[in-house]
Amino acid sequence: MKEKVGQVTAEERSEIQQLFERRNGLNELAKILTPENDALYQKLVKDMGETGTKFQNWWDNMAKKYNWKSTPNGHWEINFETCEIFLSE
Known about the structure:
This protein is α+β, with helices and mostly antiparallel strands and 89 residues long. It has 2 helices and 3 strands; from the N terminus they run βααββ. A hairpin with a 4-residue loop joins β2 and β3.
């Protein structure tokens, strides 16, 4: 079940969309990269951690700014086209 709980600005949407796309790209790269290439592997792990933290911080900051409804088993989703935020359970 999805419930609309808010909206963000186009600029805010662009921030999370960039992080979302970067996180997905890093996850795809992680599927093909092996630990044998240690330098690149370490850079990937570091970048994945930093991107994940920025991604979560965006959600935390926006939830606080806009006072979005939340539930223990729920998570927020964004519609990139409309900038609407939904709570999914």
